[in-house]
Amino acid sequence: MKITIFAAGSRGDIQPCVVLCKGLQRAGYQVCLAAPEDFTSFAQDQDISIHPLRGDVQKVMASETGRKYMDSGGANPLKSIRAMRTMLAPVVKQMVEDAYTACRSSDALICQGVLAAFGKSITEVLNIPVINIEPTPLLPTRAFPAPSWPIQKNLGGWHNYLSGVVMLRIIWLWYQPFVNDFRKRLGLSPYTGASFLRLIKLMPMISAYSPSIIPHPPDWSEAVHITGYLFLDNQTDWQPSHELKAFLEAGDPPVYIGFGSMAGRHPEQLAQLSVEALVKSGQRGLLLTGWGGLLTESVPENIFVVDSAPHSWLFPRMKAVVHHGGAGTTAEGLRAGVPAVILPFAFDQSFWGARVKAMGLGTDPIPKKELTSDRLAGAILQAVNDPQLNQNSSRCGEAIRSENGIANAVKIIEQYVGRP
After folding, report:
1. What whole-number distance in Å separates Cα of residue 381 and Cα of residue 387?
2. Angle between helices 11-26 and 327-336 (to 10 degrees)
């Protein structure tokens, strides 16, 4: 039995799908990852068969429109429609055509939830089952505000639910012209916003996050399965450079600072502010530049700069982690059991910042527009010195490490598509 997994986005979006590919392979399925071509080497390094999708996601994120969107934080959902369509336009048509080709010989499709309209269109033509997967809640609920909704305070059930409906409508409007153009080429009738909302509520969903962090809301159907995080744990043979190892052994655990692909239009300013905050806090620090291009020229001796390193290796060796609040980075920080300082830029990052704060696992999130070196220094000091934060984080890490999201996800997929 062959399963194709269709995914696009940043490393945080692709990695859980790679992990799921590996779990399905171990269970006996033939698996193909349909993902942007810039992730080809990553998939191949994990022994995953990949059908490369044309379109460089990193290039899109690094474009002027992409960096401007990160700078704005996506604070206005309506304005995000134009920005997302501008970023998607050069790549989306080729990507979905390639995804369709990847699925032609498949028995089932697993598709990112935000791409559900494309995935469902493909499976309508091929007459195969489809399951959605998402690292962040996607469906409306009375339990909490929708990720990416500008107001992350819990103002009650109706506000929370309506925010979810509105954000699904916004996501639909990001993709609407591309989806219906694709459906026309396939000979299918167009979707409306209402039909998309009905569709995504009915489709099976693998929610790849911990029930310790987000329990199953009572107003979600049993088709939504909260499995636990999908961690990439085969990087145990990764070895740090001699310089990094020496730095870690030379003193107290440092504070991690890194923002993945989210450095915005002025990464050098963000790097300088981060260095200033570490100096003011008196903490040793480790800066990870990432593919957002966090730039540094000269740093004090108690700060180490590294281009890349697995979060699963780094985070347990840190005193606290400062990051953008992406779903994957947040998950690794929670598993490591260290307090978080989240600086949300866009998308679901404010949601994870609010969630971490509400559970006593990190400080107040600091939106980028409110970020100063003094405020970041104060948050770092709170994260490393607050005994309750550290105790809560340690207990949460133990709970998450006891879960097996991969086994849970594979078992659910077997229920829907059959065993290989």
Report:
1. 12
2. 70
In the block, residue with structure tokens 């065993």: 419
At 281, the amino acid letter reads S
Instruction: Give the pLDDT confidence of 37-88 residue by residue, as tens digits.
Output: 989 999 999 999 999 999 776 676 666 666 666 665 556 778 788 888 988 8
Q: Kindly report the CA angle at 199 between 208 and 225, in degrees rounded to 5? A: 25
Instruction: Using the structure block, give the residue that is written with the tokens 């699925």.
Output: 103
Q: In whole angstroms, what is the distance from residue 314 CA to residue 106 CA?
A: 38
Torsion, Cα 57 59 65 67, to 10 degrees, reads 100
* CATH (one of 3.90.226.10, 3.40.50.2000, 3.55.50.30, 3.30.1330.30) for 2-229+404-417: 3.40.50.2000
Residue whose token pair is 């033939």: 30
Class for domain 242-401, per CATH? Answer: alpha beta
CB 12 within 8 A of CB 327: yes
Buried b (16+ CB within 10 A) or exposed e, 326-352: bbbbbbbbbbbbbbbbbbbbbbbbbbb
Residue 372 structure tokens: 């100063």
Pairing of strands 50-53, 108-112: unpaired
As a whole number of angstroms, the distance between CA 23 and CA 29 comes to 9
242-401 shares the fold of 2-229+404-417: yes
Residue type, 192: T
User: Residue holding tokens 């392979």?
Assistant: 25
pLDDT digits (tens, 9 = 90+) for 241-268: 999 999 999 999 999 999 876 655 567 7
* DSSP secondary structure of 203-219: S-EEE-S-TTTS---TT
Strands (E), 246-383: 255-258, 285-288, 303-306, 320-323, 340-342
Residues 6+ apart with CB under 8 A from 36: 8, 14, 52, 53, 54, 55, 56, 57, 91, 95
Calculate the CA dihedral of residues 350, 139, 38, 33 and round it to 10 degrees: 150
Domain map (residue ranges) of the chain: 2-229+404-417, 242-401
Q: Is 369 exposed, middle or buried (0-12, 13-18, 19+ CB in 10 A)?
A: exposed
